[in-house]
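Following the same procedure, backbone shapes were mapped to integers, as reproduced here:
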Amino acid sequence: MTLAQIVNWIALALTCAIVFWRGRRPERFGMVIIIAGFLATPLVQRVDSWYAPQYGILAVDAAALLAFIWLAFRYGCYWAICGAAFQTVSVFIHFAFMIAPHALYRAYYFGNFSIGYLVLGSILGGVIFERATPVRCRPLPWPRPSSASGSSED
């Protein structure tokens, strides 16, 4: 195990402890998504050649992206929107690597590695900054219904 992997697992463990100690239901769901991704990634990665596209990791990242999008619509938390945005970047990094694997090897490796820290940071932000806001238990209305007075807030 490399030093970067050890630091990654330590960051995951600390974030997990904070989220399950002080987080609400949406943050805990998000942490479960990240833990599932951390556990599934070594099972699906190709270690024979790092210059070959990692389709298994792409599938794990895409599933995490869909889960974060679901969380963002289900609970309306800003951290879930940020987590979905970071996961989108991670998925796009996979597609960019498929186009030019030898040219983008370092960007692929370090980009996907660092995106995990950003997603962990977004969940910690949810625990810290959104703790006082009420959790929505239904999907957000889209498009926004018009107000009863007829005035526009936009």
In short: The helical segments are 3-22, 25-44, 55-75, 78-99, 105-129. The chain has a mean pLDDT of 84. The longest helix spans residues 105-129.
